[in-house]
Amino acid sequence: MTAKTGFFVVIMLVLSLVECGAAPQGTPPVGSPGGSPGGAADRVPGPEYRIQVGDRLEIKFFYSPELNELVIVRPDGRISLQLIPEVVVANLTLAMLAKQLTERYAADLNQPQVTVIVREFGMQRVFVDGEVATPGMVPILGQMTALQAISQAGGMKDTARTTEVIVIRRGAADTPVALRVDLKKARNGSNLAQDINLAPLDIIYVPRSRIANVNLFVDQYMRKIFPFDWVVGYKFWF
Fold first, then answer.
1. C-alpha torsion 164→149→77→69, nearest 10
2. In terms of pTM, does the model score above 0.70?
3. Is residue 182 domain-shared with residue 79, that is, in the same domain?
4. Which range of residues forms the domain containing residue 63?
5. Which string of DSSP letters, residue by residue, matches 154-188?
6. Do residues 108 and 135 share a domain?
7. How far is CA 31 from CA 85, 185, 193, in A?
8. Nearest of 133, 191, 144 to residue 167 by alpha carbon
9. Which regions of the chain are under pLDDT 50?
10. What pLDDT, on a 0 to 100 scale, did the predictor assign at position 20?
11. Consecutive H or E run containing 206
12. pLDDT in tens, 84-124
């Protein structure tokens, strides 16, 4: 997979599939954790953001600007800064990290006032592949649907099979599952629910021809991407 291999590496940390067909009883609605967009729940602020692997952080020292840095959270959840040992930052809120850094720098600085800003969200992206103009990574800010992500990837080619678009996502207990959506119905307005909300690190695959066996397709597709046998004990919902 040449150039596309790089942006798929991130998925190896978190990837899986969401169901083909209707969601099983008890499964959260496909799309955003809060359900369908536009509802009252969408207007309620969520929990405070916690730092994730791949986030790009700006560390600013108000009284010691020479120590200001832009750092990326490594896969081990740590960052490296001047004067102090490595810091584990994954799953901390911005306020928690700022407080921790202020305390750590207190021995070296007279006024160690620190603030932390997320300049780029490492996990806030999806991946679009298949019959689209520019396959690759698409950043997501707030809610994004499958059609919106495909539009950001340049739109579908004339050869795309819009009735069988596959969304790949992490399922319960990291069990890979998959969802087949009919974006033709979403585009012509006959079933807007087919244009589902996406979750971070989803893969949207737009096929060229009919996928008769989704299980087999996903298995073969993912094995082309990953250099190891990651598909162990997975299942698909139909």
1. 160
2. no
3. no
4. 56-120
5. T-B-TT--GGGEEEEEE-GGG-EEEEEE-HHHHHH
6. no
7. 40, 17, 10
8. 144
9. 1-42, 228-238
10. 39
11. strand 203-206
12. 999 999 999 999 999 999 999 999 999 999 999 999 888 88
Report how many domains make up the chain.
2
Are the CB atoms for 101 and 59 separated by under 8 Å? Answer: yes
Q: Which of 76, 93, 120 is the last residue of a domain?
A: 120
Instruction: Give the residue from 68, 103, 120 where a domain finishes.
Output: 120
What single string gives the DSSP state of each residue in 84-143? S--EE-TT-BHHHHHHHHHHHHTTT-SS--EEEEEEE-TT-EEEEEESBSS-EEEE--S-
In a domain, 237, yes or no: no
Model confidence over 144-172: pLDDT tens digits? 999 999 999 999 999 999 999 999 887 77
Q: Count CB-CB contacts under 10 A for residue 130.
A: 21
Residues 137 and 27 in one domain: yes
Residue 182 confidence (pLDDT): 96
Token pair recorded at residue 41: 């729940």
- Beta strand 125-130 with 203-206 is parallel
Which domain CATH number covers 128? Answer: 3.10.560.10
Q: Check whether residue 68 and residue 174 sit in a common domain.
A: no
- CA 151, 153, 155, 156 torsion-angle sign: negative
Dig out the tokens for 212 from the structure.
Answer: 């008769």
| pLDDT reported for residue 153 | 95
Q: Is there a single domain that holds both residue 128 and residue 116?
A: no
Phi-psi region of 218 (alpha: psi -120 to 50; beta: other; left: phi over 0): alpha
Q: What pLDDT, on a 0 to 100 scale, did the predictor assign at position 5?
A: 43
Q: Is residue 49 in some structural domain?
A: no
Q: Is residue 106 part of a domain?
A: yes
